Amino acid sequence: YTASISIEQQVSNGRHLDPRMLLPRKELMRDPHCEDDAQAWHAVYSSHFKQPLLDEDDAIILRIYLLQPSPNWPVFSLQQVQAHRFDPLLLQLAP
C-alpha cells in the first residue's frame, strides 16, 4: 500500500555517507486512497534514475523512502525487494 517511492544512494566521501538522489519519485499506485493496484509488483531499472548509480568499492548502499499520503493506510511497506546487477561481460563468457 505504498503510493510512491524515492531512492537515494549513500556515497562515501571518506568519513561519512553523503546522500545522492537517484529517483526523486516513482508512483506505485494510481490513486493512493484506493487499493485496486496497491499490491501490484513493480520493477525499477537504472534507466529510471535521474543520474547514474556510482559503483562503490565494497558495497552499493541504497535508501528507499516510502510515501503514502492517504490516511486510509496507517501501515504500508515494500515486500519481496530484490536487487540484481546486469553484467554484459558474463554473457560473453557463457558457452
What does this structure look like?
The relative contact order is 0.29. Strands 2-1-3 form a three-stranded antiparallel sheet, with no helix packed on it. It has one helix spanning 88-93; strands spanning 4-12, 17-27, 61-67. The mean pLDDT is 89. It is mainly β and 95 residues long. The termini are far apart.
Q: What string, H for helix and E for strand, traces the elements in order?
A: EEEH
**Envelope shape:** globular
Structural class: mainly beta
End-to-end CA span: 43 Å
* Count of individual helical segments: 1
Question: What is the gyration radius calculated from CA atoms?
Answer: 16 Å
Query: What is the number of E strands?
Result: 3
Low-confidence stretches: none
Main pleated sheet: 3 strands, antiparallel
Could you tell me the strand content as a percent range? 25-35%
Helix content: under 10%
Mean pLDDT: 89
Q: Going across the biggest sheet, name each strand in turn.
A: 2-1-3
How would you briefly describe this protein structure?
By secondary structure, this protein is mainly beta.
Essential attributes:
3-stranded antiparallel beta sheet, single chain, 95 residues, 1 helix, 3 strands, mainly beta, globular, 6% helix
Give me the secondary-structure topology.
Blueprint lengths: L3 E9 L4 E11 L33 E7 L20 H6 L2
